[in-house]
Amino acid sequence: MSTKEARRVFVMEEVVEGRITVREAAAYLNLSERQVKRLKKEMKEKGVLSLVH
User: Fold this and answer.
1) Residues near 48 by Cβ (< 8 Å), separated by ≥ 6?
2) What is the pTM (predicted TM-score) of this model?
3) For residue 49, what is the DSSP state?
4) Cβ–Cβ contacts within 10 Å for residue 20, how many?
5) Domain boundaries in the chain?
6) pLDDT digits (tens, 9 = 90+) for 1-53
């Protein structure tokens, strides 16, 4: 797992647990809010492995 992927996993875990907002995560990851919402949904359904390329 690359550093970028590890950072994405960490930030998305924070979003799923409600510690940060989708907007904040989008800013941290340099993604759109829509992309973060999609990642959040996938992570809830499939787990952390859905975020690893």
Assistant:
1) 9, 13
2) 0.85
3) G
4) 16
5) 3-51
6) 889 889 999 999 999 999 999 999 999 999 999 999 999 999 999 988 888 76
